[in-house]
Amino acid sequence: ITEEGLGYFNTAYHFYSPIHSLATAGFPIAIARMVSENLACGRYADVRRIHKLSIPIFLITGGLGFAVMVISAPFYVRAIGNGGALPAMFCLAPAILFSCLSSVYRGYYEGMSNMYPTAISEVMEAIFKLLVGLSAAYLVFRLGMGEFYSSGTVWGQQVTSEAFAKSALLPYTAAAAVFGVTIGSFASFFCLWSRHKRKGDSITCSELQCSPPCTDRKSIVGRLIKMAIPIGIGALAVNVAALVDTTFLQTRINHIMSVHPEPLLTMYQGMIPDLEVKIATGTVSNFLFGCYSQALALFMLVPGITQAFGISALPSVTSAWMSGSRCELQKSISSVLRMTALFSIPAGLGLSVLSGPVSQAVFGAKASIPITSRTLAVMGVAAIFASLSTPIFSMLQAVGRVDLPVKLLCVGLGLKIGLNYVLTGIPEINILGAGIGTLVCYVFITISACYFLCKETKIHLKFHSIFTKPAIASMFCCIAAYFSCFAMSKIMPDSLATGIAVFIAVFIYIASLLCLKALCKDDVLMLPKGQKLVKILEKHHLIM
Q1: Is pLDDT at 345 greater than 90 in this prediction?
Q2: Cα separation of the two ends of the chain
Q3: Helices (H), 425-540
Q4: Are 394 and 358 in contact (CB under 8 A)?
Q5: Is the Cβ–Cβ distance between 334 and 469 less than 8 Å?
Q6: Among 49-58, 184-193, 210-219, 337-346, the range of highest mean pLDDT
Q7: What is the per-residue pLDDT across 107-158, written as a single tens digit (0 to 9) for each?
Q8: CA contacts within 13 A on the Cβ side of 166
Q9: I want to staple 184 with a disulfide (CB 3.0 to 4.6 A). Which of 125, 220, 334, 518 is the partner?
Q10: Among 371, 382, 173, 363, which residue's Cα sits nearest to residue 288?
Q11: Orientation of helix 284-323 relative to helix 369-398, angle to 10°
Q12: Burial class (CB in 10 A: 0-12, 13-18, 19+), 224
């Protein structure tokens, strides 16, 4: 759908995300925490009641979220000057309702430390997003261009050239692509619902009979809402950050284009295809936002994966906190942070060092790749801190401080808004300002959240083993990646050179970790075939 279509897609998605988070994000974590607490206390009847009472709550919040998006979307696109995003917004709105219903089951099973239903439903969701989104976008684009070639019109409207025809089609192509998200969210809900009907949960009849009497409905609902609201506001703040990017990037660049466009157009000379059409249709800002969105998609891969560490940490940290075992608590927190750092530091630095080759390998050899790679070089470093912040917030919520993530996110969001507004309005910086704002925001959030986690739990983390060793190994990894990519690109296709460079970097990284003895036995045991790996590593004294 090109950068322009991606601009419409992500304008809709970033507007949807805060509403979706407000409707869904707080309750799954609240359900998981309450289920985990009640299981630890043997209150199995309460566990079942929590699930039953959460369904009508999610139906109401999902319905309200759907209505809010449909009603407010026209006003938003008018405010930012991007009316082409409106069809995508309408196609995406039903996903809020289906996601709410999925969240009931995900939170319930996660509280029982059963991550398989969530994992399976997310895979199903991704498959349907891919198949439906790509197929629908392809079909709409082919039909529209077929109409243009036969009659010179697009959906009945006369257009003067092929470039104008493609520009007119992209809002509807993006809407078809984003409709895959809605179908994917429905597939996820259906997968979870049917599994629960077939297999139920792990609670036995004997456990229910031995369980204390149920807590009254009013108390459970009240506690659920009281716990969910601050968590939901915290998640809202994260997604509002993306909406800030969407809004300021487009409004500020539209301002540059109307007042003093020469520096910006000179900077990107030869990188924006069909520039005359984009100037005539007022879509230069949407195109540049699409380039930023490509960098953002790669950036989100890193925290998207490490989010799983935060979800898996919640039950174990909650259980350790409730039992009062400082040793278990320190072990759980250290393990989660170390696993997150082991993955996020090399991944983030690798995206920065290889921003150009990776962007080209993923999105193709396009003229606009330098725009994306320039932003990704900054966003790659930000991905490290974004990845670490998610599990730290989950652990703060697990120890009862659900208010702290909200407060820290609000301050970080304030920093981001200020930097975005100022920097994106400077023609020589433009979209790079959003990347800088994101980096500063997550650096502040991660450092302050880590400080408060140590303060609240009264544990002392071994920062050297958790962060320093992976950082040193990552430096070796990135140096190897950069020079091997540079050397091999001279004798083979760029994409192949990038792939081989990444493979070499992974090998160097693992070797560096082993030489530095940065891996712990418990970390390796979490991996597939962990027992065998531990025996081999212990034999050669390569593990702590």
Answers
A1: yes
A2: 49
A3: 432-457, 463, 469-488, 494-516, 521-525, 530-539
A4: no
A5: no
A6: 184-193
A7: 888 878 788 888 899 999 999 999 999 999 999 999 999 999 999 888 888 8
A8: 13
A9: 125
A10: 371
A11: 20
A12: buried
* C-alpha–C-alpha distance, residues 324 and 279, integer Å: 63
Whole-number Å distance between alpha carbons of 399 and 395: 6
260-289: average pLDDT: 89
Q: What is the rounded CA–CA span in Å between residue 268 and residue 310?
A: 40
Residue 289 to residue 367: CA distance in whole angstroms: 15
Tokens of 442: 């997550």
Question: What is the Cα–Cα distance from 519 to 358, expressed in whole angstroms?
Answer: 28
Comparing CA positions, the residue from 395, 318, 341, 411 lying closest to residue 113 is: 318
Tokens of 107: 């939170």
Percent of the chain with pLDDT over 70: 92
> Is residue 18 within 8 Å of 237, Cβ to Cβ?
no
Contact 386/412 with Cβ under 8 angstroms?
no
For tokens 């050179």, name the residue: 497
Give the residue from 470, 419, 460, 475 showing the smallest Cα distance to 442. 419
What is the enclosing helix (H) or strand (E) of 157? strand 157-158
Contact predicate 286/452, CB 8 Å: no
Q: Is the dihedral of CA 440, 399, 465, 355 positive or negative?
A: negative
158 DSSP assignment: E
* 145 neighbors 72 (Cβ within 8 angstroms): no
CA distance linking residue 263 with residue 260, whole number of Å? 7
Q: Could you read off the pLDDT of 234-256 as tens digits, one per residue? A: 666 667 777 888 888 889 999 99
Question: What is the Cβ-side half-sphere exposure of residue 257, based on CA atoms within 13 angstroms?
Answer: 20
Measured between alpha carbons, how far is residue 91 from residues 46, 131, 376 in Å? 38, 16, 29
- Whether residue 453 contacts residue 395, with contact meaning beta carbons closer than 8 Å, is answered with yes
Q: How far is CA 209 from CA 212, 213, 393, in A?
A: 8, 9, 36
Number of residues in the chain: 544
The CA-CA-CA angle for residues 289, 183, 24, to 5°, reads 75
d(CA 352, CA 356): 9
Cβ density class 244-281: b for 16+ within 10 Å, e for less: bbbbbbbbbbbebbeeeeeebbeebeebbebeebbeeb
User: Are 152 and 163 contacting, i.e. CB atoms less than 8 angstroms apart?
Assistant: no
Tokens 């693992």 sit on residue: 510
Task: Please choose, from the candidates 478, 493, 500, 483, the residue with its C-alpha nearest in 3D space to the C-alpha of residue 351.
Answer: 478
Residue tagged 């696109």 (tokens): 77
Which SS3 state, helix, strand or coil, does residue 154 take? strand
Distances (CA, A) of 380 to 206, 255, 377, 522: 51, 28, 6, 28
pLDDT higher than 70, residue 349: yes
Q: What amino acid is encoded at 508 in this protein?
A: I
